[in-house]
Specification:
The complex is a heterodimer.
Chain A: H1 2-7, H2 17-21, E1 27-29, H3 30-60, H4 80-105, H5 108-138, H6 147-180, H7 183-211, H8 215-225
Chain B: E1 6-8, H1 22-27, H2 32-62, H3 72-108, H4 116-135, H5 165-194, H6 207-239, E2 249-250, E3 253-254, H7 262-295, H8 303-316, H9 332-360, H10 369-391, H11 394-400, H12 404-434, H13 440-467, H14 485-517
Antiparallel strand pairs in B: 2-3
The chains are: A mainly alpha, B mainly alpha.
């Protein structure tokens, strides 16, 4: 690995200058820099959801935990609306990828359509999630009545906040394109936005599985994890 | 595929990009140096508040019930706010937001951070977090008095001081701080990885940068644990969930919480809390290495080992957290595991201490004020580290955990030691910032007052701990097993603490006076090799490097190289430009 090789260098020894300079070129690759920052941000987000998950799995084994699926009267035994929301987020993820492809071909109208589709599907996902919250409340599954409910509201809320943050960056990206009409910049920005969208889609799939599992599944996972 | 967007950072000098108005230059500045100063001033100001709070605590402990304005509740509030401010809002902010911001671009040969706007935003959000925290002094019930670890359930239950708005403002402030830190942290790691000038390989970076780099990664991965616990506790407090709250009877009333785990909070808190020790320590390790090397005119001993040790300490810091929780009760095998990892982390740490000593050995030691503080750090850190080894063992920790021994330990290792490095760093890099030295006589007075004074505070405190004097108590009352002499010792500690506090006033005076009236330093006054001293304009202006970026040809520790005319070779001096003592360049193998 390059990093391990770098760490083995003995910088005090006389070596040919060029041998040691290959890593640092004196050029700032803006796309690469943004990509590095995004990867670190995704690592931070991963830690956040990982820690929430650990606490959740521990709590699934407490006496007062009632899973949200597995019995006919539980809300996610039939999780149709969550599947629908997942489809929205998947479509948003696909359309942002298409927007990037169209930007590479500099096809303006196709770009506009795909950007609009991304915005639309993302907003549909958010509104779908809010709808689920309202339905849970209407059915008496309040945030405080059960730890499973608490975690459902908490985790989907934190996920939605990340999506909203993404939308703000996405809007800035569109605004900048409207001002300077640089296809090259649009492509590099959409590439990063797409990566973020795909990542949040996978986080959502993970949360979907986690929050809608039944008691037996939790028991199995918890025993594997040692809770 | 589109072409990669490369910007030749060497050619970025655009006169129109320099800020011209007062607001753009000093307030809404995107210049990393100005942001560093903003971070530093805010951190030092809030740190002084914490210093005053510690003085109030000491007044009560030294002279119990003599001061009517300190009651049990306010005592606990002083303890809590002192701890949180010092660890998060002073040390983390000053070391990474202050020194990180100032030194990263200059030391790697960049014009600024990669994302200057985000950098500016990071400071203003940090300031907001400080204001929210300080606002808790003015709300009904005052700030939280739950202890800096904010353990539930008591942190949010009535009966604990500041359990209303106080604890909420603390949690919100922490969440805001973490957002600010993440913005800054992403900038620091990206800048170090992507914006190094030509020739500045990772292994040519000064150890200061390695410390800041690894500490930032630790911060990015550890602060989320604090964020997660803060969010969940806010939910418990405001919404009534039971993430951390068990079924509980409080003041005769059965609360609606049930099934939550307070221990879970402790795990989350310390999963952040222990790496936090190294978030503070690693930049300090790096900076002290550079100060020692420069002022001993000698290359740092074992540079590669120092880098590896920083990385190893960073990695290990994530698997030792539960040694803070031995008294919570845990499976004995768990205790064994965490005691073992704690002892293992002492190996790379001890290696660093040996390397600092070996750097000093046969060096041309200049006992300047920065060097005095650096040497003082070696003492205090070794001292704090050794008591850490004791407390890392379950069997020793259990009887000592709730005593003043622990207070003495962590103040030596995490309070005094990083502060000694911060002072060393301030005295060392002050000329870079202002073009002037800090006053030498006042500096020496400051060093001896601080060094001897902190020993006068914390050495006896270890003894109090052995006697069994409990920490966190407002007053001892009638306690048979504690002799009366313990109170005399406590009074002595308080007098020392007040003296050390007053000595810091001298430092602040020196800082302000020397900024305007200090002796002019000239360029590179310490004759250092690292890039920050080699700027075209001194002190460095906006954009740092004038028309062309420097090119790096060597590591940062070419001091006292044999047969070379000067006793230092700056990193940006090409081999052909090195001046030798003899005419025959071929005799010298070093710089071929």
């Amino acid at each position: 690995m390059q990093i391990l090789k770098s760490l083995r260098v003995k910088p005090w020894l006389p070596v040919e200058f060029e041998q040691q300079t290959s890593q640092a070129t004196g050029l700032l690759n803006k796309e690469k820099a943004a990509s590095t920052a995004l990867h670190f941000l995704l690592a931070v987000i991963t830690v956040i959801f990982f820690l929430f998950t650990v606490t959740f799995l521990q709590r699934t084994q407490s006496f007062d935990f009632q899973a949200l699926s597995g019995e006919p009267w539980l809300p996610f035994t039939n999780a149709e609306i969550l599947w629908q929301n997942s489809a929205y987020l998947l479509l948003a993820s696909i359309s942002i990828m298409l927007a990037k492809k169209f930007a590479e071909r500099q096809s303006l109208s196709a770009i506009m359509i795909s950007l609009a589709a991304t915005t639309l599907f993302t907003l549909l996902f958010i509104s779908g999630q809010i709808q689920v919250w309202l339905q849970l409340n209407q059915s008496g599954f309040y945030i405080t009545t059960n730890p499973a409910n608490s975690y459902y509201f908490l985790l989907t809320g934190v996920h939605a906040l990340h999506i909203i943050g993404g939308i703000l960056v996405f809007m800035r990206c569109i605004l900048l394109f409207a001002v300077n009409r640089s296809y090259q910049q649009l492509v590099s920005r959409l590439k990063l936005c797409a990566r973020y969208w795909h990542y949040l889609f996978f986080i959502w799939l993970f949360l979907f599985f986690l929050l809608t599992s039944d008691a037996d599944t939790f028991k199995t996972i918890a025993s594997i994890c040692g809770f | 595929m589109t072409k990669m967007e490369n910007v030749a950072i060497a050619d970025q000098v655009d006169e129109s990009s320099h800020p011209t108005t007062f607001m753009s230059k000093y307030i809404w500045s995107q210049d990393h140096k100005v942001i560093a100063v903003q971070y530093s001033i805010t951190a030092i100001a809030v740190g002084l508040v914490a210093l005053v709070l510690s003085g109030m605590m000491r007044l009560q402990l030294g002279f119990p019930n003599e001061f009517s304005f300190i009651d049990p509740s306010s005592y606990l509030q002083f303890v809590t706010m002192h701890g949180m401010i010092m660890v998060i809002y002073l040390l983390t902010a000053l070391l990474l937001g202050g020194f990180g911001n100032y030194l990263i671009p200059l030391m790697i040969g960049a014009r600024d951070m990669v994302f200057p706007f985000l950098n500016m935003l990071s400071y203003w959000i940090y300031l907001l977090s400080v204001l929210v925290l300080l606002a808790s002094f003015f709300v009904s019930g005052g700030p939280t008095g739950a202890g800096w670890t904010l353990y539930p359930p008591q942190a949010i239950l009535s009966g604990t001081p500041g359990s209303g708005a106080g604890i909420l403002l603390m949690l919100i402030s922490l969440a805001i701080f973490i957002v600010a830190f993440t913005m800054g942290g992403l900038n620091y790691v990206t800048t170090i990885l992507q914006a190094r000038t030509k020739g500045m390989t990772l292994m040519r970076m000064p150890l200061t940068l390695w410390g800041i780099f690894v500490a930032t990664i630790l911060g990015l991965l550890a602060f989320p644990a604090l964020l997660v616990s803060a969010i969940m506790m806010i939910f418990d407090k405001v919404v009534g969930t039971s993430f951390f709250m068990p079924a509980i009877l409080s003041l005769g009333q059965t609360l609606e919480h049930s099934g939550g785990s307070p221990i879970l909070f402790q795990h989350l808190f310390w999963f952040f809390g222990h790496p936090e020790v190294y978030i503070v320590a690693l930049p300090a390790f790096g900076m002290v290495s550079d100060v020692i090397s420069v002022h001993a005119r000698k290359n740092i001993f074992g540079y590669r080992m120092m880098v590896w040790a920083i990385i190893a300490i960073g990695g290990l810091s994530f698997v030792v957290w539960a040694h803070h929780m031995y008294v919570s009760g845990m499976n004995p095998y768990f205790g064994f595991f965490f005691a073992t990892t704690t002892l293992i982390i002492a190996i790379p740490t001890a290696l660093k201490v040996y390397n600092w000593l070996l750097t000093l050995w046969r060096g041309n030691i200049h006992l300047t004020v920065p060097m005095l503080f650096a040497i003082g750090f070696i003492f205090t850190f070794t001292h704090g580290g050794l008591t850490g080894l004791m407390l890392g063992n379950v069997i020793i920790d259990l009887p000592l955990s709730d005593t003043f021994f622990v207070v003495a330990h962590f103040h030596m290792v995490m309070g005094v030691s990083p502060i000694m490095v911060l002072f060393a760093a301030i005295y060392h890099w002050f000329p870079l910032l202002t073009g002037r030295f800090l006053n030498n006589k006042l500096g020496k007075f400051h060093f001896w007052g601080t060094f001897l004074g902190t020993y006068a505070i914390y050495l006896p405190m270890h003894y109090l701990g052995f006697l069994g004097v409990p920490r966190r108590y407002y007053a001892m009352g009638e306690t048979d097993f504690i002799p009366e002499s313990a109170q005399t010792l406590n009074a002595g500690i308080t007098v020392s603490a007040i003296i050390v506090g007053l000595v810091q006033v001298v430092f602040i005076f020196n800082l302000i006076w020397s900024t305007f009236k200090g002796k002019k330093s000239g360029r590179n006054p310490w004759q250092a090799t690292s890039l920050e001293w080699q700027t075209a304009q001194f002190p460095p202006g906006h954009g740092n490097w004038g028309k062309q970026l420097p090119q790096v040809y060597r590591w940062a520790y070419d001091y006292s190289v044999p047969k070379v005319k000067d006793d230092f070779i700056p990193q940006n001096v090409a081999p052909r430009d090195v001046e030798y003592l003899t005419d025959d360049k071929n005799n010298n193998q070093r710089d071929k």
